Amino acid sequence: MRPIQAELLDGGALYREVVLGKLAHARESVWIATANVKAMYVERSGRFVPLLEVLDGLAARGVALRLLHAELPSRPFREEFDRRARLVKGGLELKVCPRVHFKTVLVDGAWAYLGSANLTGAGLGAKGEHARNFEMGFVTEDFDVIDRVTAFYESVWSGASCRGCRLREVCPDPILPAGAARAQKGAPGGVQLGKARRLVRRGAKSSR
Q1: In whole angstroms, what is the distance from residue 184 CA to residue 138 CA?
Q2: Is 165 buried (19+), middle (13-18) or exposed (0-12) by CB count in 10 A?
Q3: Nearest to 36 by CA among 132, 152, 116, 130
Q4: How far, in Å, CA of 181 to CA of 5, rounded?
Q5: pLDDT of 100-138, one tens digit each?
């Protein structure tokens, strides 16, 4: 067992360090993995705004954004996403995998959060101390941890285990190797994951 340098965080400290301290100031990339995705508000310039507004600003600066999730995002999240043309057009890449249960935030390929909190208001969001979930996780810049988390994330993102997955039949949009045929399946709530691996609302105009 190799010792590593890491900081253990809980409660509101996760929100302050992971979201406000690191994610909001990313320069190159943000990769997020979460089981649940819900509308989440964060502090910005003295007011509370949707996390998607922060991500939209990062995308405008050329930061590469990935969101790997297990369940269909909540309706408020999807509605806010639909209003962000830059994110809809690929500024925020999304992929779904029902087996994803690990939670991580990788920033600039050099810093990582690993823990229990989902991308929700009561998880990594700005909920008050008496309303938020009891969550715990650690953050680190350890090179070996970063490399292993990055490799694991990339293997899921690329669909390395998709062909033999026993949940393939219930997956709303199986991730297949490049060039492989993929059946388009609708997801609950009138939303489907489109060919571009982004949330696309049925009947949405291509100009959005």
Answers
A1: 38
A2: middle
A3: 116
A4: 44
A5: 999 999 999 999 999 999 999 999 999 988 999 999 999
